[in-house]
Amino acid sequence: MVAKRIIPCLDVKDGKTVKGINFLNLKEVGDAVELGAFYASEGADELVYLDISATREGRKTFTGLVRSIAERIDIPFTVGGGISSLEDASRLLETGADKVTVNSAAVRDPRLIEQIAGHFGSQFVVVAIDAKFVGGKWTVFTSGGTSPSDKELFTWALEAQERGAGEILFTSMDHDGTKNGYPCEEFSRLCGSLSIPVIASGGAGSMRDIADVLTKGRADAALAASLFHYGEISIKDLKRFLQSEGIPVRL
Q: What pTM was estimated for this model as a whole?
């Protein structure tokens, strides 16, 4: 049985890790490189770094940060934020990132997924989807969760897979930072409709929440931020708990 992955997420603004609630009210929680190195030593399977201000501020600062991260940590890490071309993805992968995640630009032009997957392979492409339940459906949002699109979660995820995405990272905006649990029914439906791995994001408040999304929600990996950033749960303790629940993890 394939081991489930635990992935700390580090939202980065101006080189610092920040965290908010429902994508708002951001607070600084630590140095992005040092925090990543700590999580690697704690047993994280992967890391995700999202440059949340890249779309508006450009990528140069973040490219330097990616180089520093690659020099410090020895586990796979994914980077995203403001990637709008094959050149953007190439720069980050060549700097040391293991995967890139695309969001807003892929919604605007889905061919971007095909371009990156065609050049580097599907295993390098994670399509991030930020969605909110609006008017009876899960509407996909872009630009850091500020702009609704005409796409719907489940149809867009399937299209992304067909265009070459290697993984889907779905964040429920309704649950992000609330610590009230993941929307497991939606994750189960999403995982059941796709043949590629799904990373669950948005709502982790306890070890039980993470166990639930990996079992009831059928997710391949659980991504969390607040729980780890504020020291409420250690990755080592979490993995021991998941193992005790019969969930396969790498210890």
A: 0.90
Q: Is 11 a catalytic residue?
A: yes
Average pLDDT of 201-207?
A: 91
Domain count within the chain? 1
With respect to residue 124, please indicate whether it lies within any of the assigned structural domains: yes
* pLDDT value for 54: 57
237 annotated active-site: no
Catalytic residue among 45, 88, 130, 212: 130
125 vs 60, higher pLDDT: 125
The CATH number for 112's domain is 3.20.20.70
What is the chain written as a DSSP string? -PPBEEEEEEEEETTEEEEEETTEEEEEEEEHHHHHHHHHHHT-S-EEEEETTHHHH-SHHHHHHHHHHHHH--S-EEEESS--SHHHHHHHHHHT-SEEEE-HHHHH-THHHHHHHHHH-GGGEEEEEEEEEETTEEEEEETTTTEEEEEEHHHHHHHHHHTT-SEEEEEETTTTTT-S---HHHHHHHHHH-SS-EEEES---SHHHHHHHHHTS--SEEEESHHHHTTSS-HHHHHHHHHHTT--B--
